Structure formats: C-alpha cells, structure tokens
Amino acid sequence: MAMDKGLYAAPEGITDVEDLGDMPDIEIEIEDPESVTIEMGELEIELKPAKPTAEDFDANLADFMDDAELEGLGGDLIAEFDKDINDRKEWIQTYVEGLKLLGLKYIRACF
Hints:
- The protein is α+β, with helices and mostly antiparallel strands.
- 40% of the residues lie in helices and 16% in strands.
- The protein is built from one helix and three strands, in the order E-E-E-H.
- The termini are far apart.
C-alpha cells in the first residue's frame, strides 16, 4: 500500500536529502565525555563544559576556599559536634535509665 502524502509535512526550508549531495561530510569526535568536536568542511565546533564558579547554585564552595580556611571551619564543626554530644549526655543517660525501668515493669507484669 503506497502512501501519497505524509501524515506531517516537513518544515519549510528543508529540502530533499538527494539535493544535499554537495554538502561536506560531518565528522563528530568525542575525546572524552567532557569534550566534543564537530567538523563540517571548514567549520569546526568544539563543545566543552564551562568551568564552575563560586556563584553557581550547585557549586562546591570548598573548591574555592583556601586550605587554612577549610581546616579552621572543620575544626569549628568538630568542636560544636562534641559540645552537642556532651550537652546531651545527661538527657541520654536519663532516657536509658527510663527504658530500663519500663522494661523491668513490663517483664514483671508478664509474670
């Protein structure tokens, strides 16, 4: 069954493939996932990702900080974490003691 007409018309300005015989071949070279080169005759296009900057929304800000600043920030973070654990120590002990008492009451109630 031959089709006389396509379901969708080609966009204006697109010619038949047969008419494109004088166009140069397109060469695409992928060196690694980060770099792509497209050549067509004398035209060469090289695609490389942009280097991230500190202003990018999802940038890793540690990449833009000095090592001394990072060490200071890391030290402050560890100190605050240890302080938080020490501040909760009494609460944790009370919680554990309460669980022990509840467990003993439950065991006694079962027998």
